[in-house]
Amino acid sequence: MNGIKIRGAGRSVPSNVVSNRDLERKIDTSDEWITSRTGIRNRHHCSGQETFSAITAAAAREALAAAGVRPEEIGACIVATVTADTLVPSAACVLQRALGLPEDIPCFDLNAACTGFLFALHTMECLLNASPRKFGLVVGAENLSRCINWEDRGTCILFGDGAGAAVVECREGWPSISAVMGCHGNDELLRLPGAEMEEHSYITMEGTRVFKFAVEAVPWCVGQVLERTGRKVEDVDFFVFHQANARIIDLVVRKYHIPPEKYYKNIAEYGNTSAASIPLVLGELWEQGKVGPGSRILTVGFGGGLTWGGAMIEFV
Ligand code: ACO
Fold first, then answer.
1. Is residue 6 a contact partner of residue 121, using CB atoms and an 8 Å limit?
2. What is the pLDDT of residue 264?
3. 1-316 fold
4. Minimum CA distance residue for ligand 1 atom 13
5. Residue having the nearest C-alpha atom to atom 10 of ligand 1
6. Residue boundaries of the structural domains of the chain
7. Any residues with Cβ below 6 Å from ligand 1, and which?
8. Which of 18, 41, 63, 264 to pair with 4, CA 20 to 30 A apart?
9. Whose CA is nearest to atom 28 of ligand 1?
């Protein structure tokens, strides 16, 4: 199978910032508790014109511009999300119309919670191998703020909104992203009910148990991706982890002796943005010139489902 590489990345977050101090005025919490337990200081919440669809389109446009790829060259579009504006039409079909993507291509949403962007990259690699077009649009986007239960102080402080996008290219002879992915069906630790009548559509999470799952899953995924690609930590230019809790990232970088200049945390500013979290980091790294042509990135995600995944992604 031919591999994909990222040609351009983009991102968009709503301008409405909710700080820990703002939360102190709303619920029984403190800036000190949130910062020390999670590393989060701010999160951005959608409001007014800055809807899920608006930030999704903005991130995608930025990625297309960064890649120098026209909408009509796109061969497939996947939006990883659990919080699209509508279930039908999918966020990807809404985006298709907004951007003027071709009609003879698959556009669909993918739900693997916080691991969604990685599942979508792997799916895109498979799709582009079977497509006459060689570019694909992969987006991770969330509007989690509308699924927050403000009565639950253990979860309401964690989540933010945002969108990140990547335009990928598939070429003969390029290495596969070597994705490792897994799930164990667990409907207790993390839930976001859908169109049910009995339950509110709020996120519920057993945080401590999810934390324990994450601190095992993330290092395992790093090890698996290194093994599959035959690479060492020194061969990787940047490590990009799902931003769920700064302490989870600290544990894995310590375990693999990853130096500070090789990983990045933006959780302080955005909180946990689920499927948007990894592409938001990629977009920021791209903007800051920390990654670019030739960069090799090892990325790992984990989340509801429970799901986990890792991949080695290169930039064209
Ligand atoms: N402010 C102040 N006190 C709080 C708050 C708050 N916002 N929330 C909880 N507390 C209190 C609790 O009531 C508890 O008090 P008690 O000891 O008197 O009972 C105490 O703080 C400790 O609570 P814990 O829930 O045990 O806190 P913990 O250290 O586990 O941190 C957290 C909670 C931050 C949620 C952590 O468990 C975590 O990050 N888990 C992983 C989350 C994650 O990775 N999710 C990924 C997937 S998300 C997705 O897929 C959508």
1. no
2. 94
3. Peroxisomal Thiolase; Chain A, domain 1 (3.40.47)
4. 154
5. 154
6. 1-316
7. 29, 33-34, 37-38, 113-114, 153-154, 157, 190, 207-208, 210-211, 214, 244-245, 272, 274, 303-304
8. 264
9. 208
Distance from Cα 207 to the centre of ligand 1, integer Å? 5
Token pair recorded at residue 207: 């945080």
Q: Is 14 exposed, middle or buried (0-12, 13-18, 19+ CB in 10 A)?
A: buried
CB 9 within 8 A of CB 299: no
* Regions in the chain scoring below 50 on pLDDT: none
What DSSP letter does each residue of the chain carry, written as one string? --EEEEEEEEEE--S-EEEHHHHHTTSS--HHHHHHHH---EEE--BTTB-HHHHHHHHHHHHHHHHT--GGGEEEEEEE-S--S-SSS-HHHHHHHHHT--SSS-EEEE--GGGHHHHHHHHHHHHHHT-SS-EEEEEEEEEGGGG--TT-HHHHTTB-EEEEEEEEEEETTPPP---EEEE---SSSEE---S-SSS-S--EE-HHHHHHHHHHHHHHHHHHHHHHHT--GGG-SEEEE--S-HHHHHHHHHHTT--GGGB---HHHH-B-GGGHHHHHHHHHHHTTSS-TT-EEEEEEEETTTEEEEEEEEB-
Q: What's the 32 CA to ligand 1 centre distance in angstroms?
A: 13
Residue 132, preceding bond cis, omega within 30 degrees? Answer: no
How far is the centre of ligand 1, averaged over its atoms, from the C-alpha of 301 (Å)? Answer: 19
Going by CA atoms, what residue is nearest to atom 20 of ligand 1? 154
Q: For residue 159, report the distance from its CA to the centre of ligand 1, in Å.
A: 12
Tokens of 62: 């930025």
pLDDT value for 197: 66
If one counts every other C-beta atom within 10 angstroms of the C-beta of residue 212, the result is 12
Q: Which residues are catalytic?
A: 114, 242, 272
